[in-house]
Amino acid sequence: MAHIDRDYARSLTLCRGLTLDDILNTLDDDDDETLPNSQEIDIILQPPTNACQDLTDEDSGDEDLMTIGNLPGTQLMAEAELFGITQEDKEEEIGNEIDEDDLPLRSLQVAIKKNYLWEKRDLEPRHFEWPTYIDVKTNFSPTELFFQFFDNNVIDMFVKYSNLYASKKNVLNSTITEAEMKAFFGILILSGYVQLPRRRMFWENSKDTHNEVVSSAMSRDRFEFIMSNLHCCDNSKLSQQDRFAKVRPLFEAINRNFQLFCPVRAAHSVDESMVPYFGRHGCKQFIKGKPIRYGFKIWMGAISSSDCAGYCVWLEPYQGSNTQIPTMYKLFGLGPSVVLHYSTVLRQMLSLPYHIFFDNFFTTVPLLEELLRHNIRGTGTVRENRMSKCTVQSKTDMKKTTGGTYDYGSTENKVLIVKWNDNNIVNVATNNLQVHPIHHVSRLQKRKKITVDQPQCIKAYNAFMGGVDRCDENISYYRTSIRGKKWYSCLIFYLLDLSIQNSWHLHRLQGGSMDQLTFRRQIAMTLLETNRVSRKRGRPSCLENAESRFMNTNEHYLVRQDKPTRCRVCHKPVQKKCYKCDVALHMDCFVPYHTKN
């Protein structure tokens, strides 16, 4: 990421279609001493055009640093974008109860710009009818709940395309079965709570690492074979516009199942999630200040209601301008388009007045108006330069006031913006909540606890914003620890963990008392114990050619072998074998063996 002056970069910003190499060359030709440091510009890298090709099987090794000097040629030739961050934006922070997003600010581009008339008036209460829904009590086992999301269609998809990929590599007589695929996923699930430095240690004979359940369910070589051929798509039919085409069928199937069994709740939240990945891929992102800094960024919508907070309803991997978001929503900007698309997903499930919460990366006044037009409630923190000239106190003046001071303004009784002085200045915009009633919260000031005022909309935001964060937290406890060499392996394993997390929420809603660890263990043990791959003991015998066995040729005769083995007919020790068939036989058993009954 490079930093240049805003005025200097404005001419570059107006030039569309620049590659990263063009921008870097332009910056290198300029005299650095002429660039002031008062304001900065971020260079945002877009994914390269070959991000979805099949030649991306590098191992995800210990890569924790990426600089301009070691970028691949495909990345240098990809498009790049410049976005400005003013000094005021850099200083903006959210209070201790509200998480701040360190993502760079993307300029909002709306088809129709509107001037708003602000006045200091609270929103009038809007009454949205929310019907009463009773969750169905199914008494399903953990495995049955898991297979609602990772169903037979998903398993069959892995079996079909993994076998197809293996056949194209000319691997014969190694067809993967449904039972083997389930046992394979059982081992992956078990690795989330039984972690070893190397996955092969599960099959070692050492007493300190050997795992009897894993080794008895599947051999090490068979696991490695499935791991190397794991696919959920046909490589010959990949879309060149979709950089996640290799996992697109899986994302579509999982999204469909998540929404099919989704509990009906009013409060939802939208945020980004990160899938850890340290290999090389054009869509890999770096987000400063996040628990997972390097990896694939996932847009996610999740339930925020307390009884099932963290249930993932929808997710979509971020891939720059090719992200699968309807074009009509992209006119509102990157962040707002994600919220609008999620609102469409919710309305396709049931047309209800949902309430979506989001942070300041997504919030704009046009977004809240558009949500209200679709009968969707929305609340989120908002940045200073996205407040559409709302007539509230400035940030500088608000800092001079005492803790708990607040100011607000609304426009046409549609959107309300509240500025509140907490430990930092907090801005919240909403199209449904009000300032009143005022609540009281405790704060620590000069080593003494004091009580300060808190507007109603900020209290609601703190209560219902953490749905996606709760989902990430649940997954982080028992994340699949086995890693694959293919770049898409981490995404497959992430969806596996996400399916377990969602099924655990359904288990709790139907009255179950298992914690997530016990729930995950039951799924793993069921998959491993009911899908064991039967194996014969000892060395496998050679394959027989029936046609050559019964042919009358001079090549069938007895020869002496080095060590005695069992006769194929009478099973007694014998020192001789058939030269043609390579089968141990006695003299008396030679003719019966080579004669058709």
From TrEMBL:
InterPro entries in the cross-refs: PGBD, PiggyBac_TE-derived
Residues annotated as transmembrane: none
A Gene Ontology molecular function term of the record: sequence-specific DNA binding
Domain PiggyBac transposable element-derived protein per the UniProt entry, residue ranges: 141-504
PANTHER family (UniProt xref): DDE_TNP_1_7 DOMAIN-CONTAINING PROTEIN, PHORBOL-ESTER_DAG-TYPE DOMAIN-CONTAINING PROTEIN
Protein's name according to its UniProt entry: PiggyBac transposable element-derived protein domain-containing protein
Source organism: Acanthoscelides obtectus
